[in-house]
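Hi R.,

Here's the chain you asked about this morning:
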Amino acid sequence: MLDVKGIMNIIPQRPPFLMIDKVEEYVPGESAIAYKNVNINEWYFQGHFPNEPIMPGVLITEALAQTGAIAILSVEENKGKNALFGGIDKLRFKKPVVPGDVLKLEVKIIKKKGPIGVGEAIASVEGKVVAKGELTFAIVG
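And here is the predicted structure, written out as tokens:
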């Protein structure tokens, strides 16, 4: 298990753009499971949307990417590097994420060749899938 300090030892994102609160488990180079507690005080709810707050899909995608980065950047040869988006495929949003939700983020690395790879990403709330797709990443640095 990793808390915020442990997460920041692996990935370069920092508040307010750090989108995961804890990592339940991870296998370097293979997978990670993380959580985001969605709070009404998040900066993006001021404008998305003032009378009906919904977590933007792009930020759910970013939270999934940061979860995948935990898996890939925890490998010894990738320490101190960064993982950038190379593509987003088959990503679908199935249900809104709102304040009070606990977002479970699961990423499994399904392909890797050199510095490029693909992660199968699933976000869920209370066991129901809210987003699912594939994220392509490139390791740099």
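One quick note: Residues 4-140 form a domain with the Thiol Ester Dehydrase; Chain A fold (CATH 3.10.129.10).

Cheers,
M.
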